[in-house]
């Protein structure tokens, strides 16, 4: 990962930094934005964006809910980070971000590992190291894009992650480019993980109708069909919580996890692990360990009710665990609950794909042939009434 860290991001990508003073400083700046207390203040935005999601899914009967999950994830995180909603999901800023991410993914599938595996390559003449120019160009493109987005964000009224980060006294000596990477990483990780997890949820719901019926029964007994669920309902729905946890376990979004390196020589089961060696926390294998998860290849939410303290690899481990766990769980939880309340999940004859797409650390599922059918006229009316009320309030607020 040295090439990605030092050449491709000028040692500014927080997730790639080694544990040390710089990483700890960035973590101290970033963590308050994603703390449990802060995430509670984001609930109105999460409820509003998930309400639009319900309305979009209700209005479009195509077997492609993924486009609306994308809109949900991008709009929610962009609004928090930069103070602007993305109601269509195809706004220019979203497109520009997607193109940048695609360029990074396409170019960095093999180069980082080749250079790290054969360090002598860095001593070749510049014209024989095309990856360096590609890295510099991408670095420039990222700074240019983020600068434009952040400068616009700072012109908007109200609190945003951009204003909070750039005015934090802890980072007063940091260069502007560091803020660009910090906020760019928050946006990218936030919307990709939520979007990908919701696509996996839809596929698994269509393949497990019996478990969905159990969720419907629990939701109906607590909420009914005359109101849309809110955050306060989640604690009253243990099976729905278990359903969400089982989605995260059953099909990890990061099957091989995030590579780590050991800070000092270690030993495990008689094997010597030299300093700086890569450690791969293989999430897929962990989540299918029969000693931890009985009958691991079966989608069985009950396991989380029988033992709420089961380990879950989705958010990583220790001091390098994902700082956005509370944000991810909150956004995923409200959306899973509301979709289970509102819809039946119909799998098309060609099936719902859980096969990873591409060969990247984040293994997004392939396209899913799933359609969502509103459960009743009452559910439809409740969604339409909630959407109309919100639109009215939005127009009155200007």
TrEMBL record:
UniProt similarity note: Belongs to the cytochrome P450 family.
Annotated heme binding sites: 322
Cofactor: heme
Keywords, comma-separated and alphabetical: Heme, Iron, Metal-binding, Monooxygenase, Oxidoreductase
Protein name: Cytochrome P450
One Pfam short name: p450
Molecular function GO labels: heme binding; iron ion binding; monooxygenase activity; oxidoreductase activity, acting on paired donors, with incorporation or reduction of molecular oxygen
Gene3D superfamilies according to UniProt: Cytochrome P450
Keyword flag Oxidoreductase: yes
Annotated source species: Aspergillus nanangensis
């Amino acid at each position: 990962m040295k090439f990605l860290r030092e050449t491709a991001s000028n040692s500014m990508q927080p997730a790639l930094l080694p544990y040390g003073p710089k990483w700890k400083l960035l973590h101290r700046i970033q963590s308050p934005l994603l703390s449990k207390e802060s995430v509670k203040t984001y609930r109105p935005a999460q409820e509003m964006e998930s309400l639009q999601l319900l309305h979009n899914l209700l209005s479009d009967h195509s077997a492609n809910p993924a486009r609306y999950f994308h809109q949900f994830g991008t709009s929610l995180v962009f609004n928090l980070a930069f103070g602007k909603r993305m109601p269509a999901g195809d706004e220019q800023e979203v497109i520009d971000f997607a193109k940048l991410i695609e360029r990074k993914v396409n170019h960095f599938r093999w180069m980082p590992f080749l250079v790290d595996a054969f360090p002598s390559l860095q001593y070749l003449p510049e014209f024989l190291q095309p990856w360096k120019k590609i890295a510099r160009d991408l670095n420039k493109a990222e700074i240019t894009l983020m600068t434009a987005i952040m400068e616009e964000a700072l012109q908007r009224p109200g609190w945003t992650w951009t204003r909070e980060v750039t005015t934090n006294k802890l980072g007063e000596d940091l260069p502007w480019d560091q803020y660009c990477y910090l906020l760019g990483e928050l946006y990218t990780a936030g919307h990709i993980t939520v979007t990908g997890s919701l696509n996996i949820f839809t596929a698994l719901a269509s393949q497990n109708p019996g478990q969905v019926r159990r969720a419907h029964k629990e939701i109906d007994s607590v909420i009914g069909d005359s109101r849309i669920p809110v955050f306060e309902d989640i604690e009253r729905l243990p099976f729905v919580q278990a359903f969400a946890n089982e989605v995260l376990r059953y099909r990890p979004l990061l099957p091989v996890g995030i590579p780590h390196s050991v800070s000092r020589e270690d030993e495990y089961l008689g094997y010597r692990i030299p300093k700086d060696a890569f450690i791969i926390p293989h999430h897929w294998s962990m989540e299918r360990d029969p000693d931890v998860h009985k009958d691991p290849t079966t989608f069985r939410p009950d396991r989380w009710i029988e033992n709420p303290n089961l380990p879950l690899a989705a958010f990583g481990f220790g001091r390098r665990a994902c700082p956005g766990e509370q944000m991810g769980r909150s956004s995923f939880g409200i959306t899973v609950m509301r979709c289970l309340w509102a819809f039946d999940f119909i799998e098309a004859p060609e099936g719902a794909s859980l096969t990873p797409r591409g060969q990247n650390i984040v293994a997004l599922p392939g396209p899913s042939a799933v359609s969502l059918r509103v459960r009743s006229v009452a559910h439809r009316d409740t969604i339409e009434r909630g959407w109309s009320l919100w639109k009215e309030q939005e127009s009155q607020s200007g």
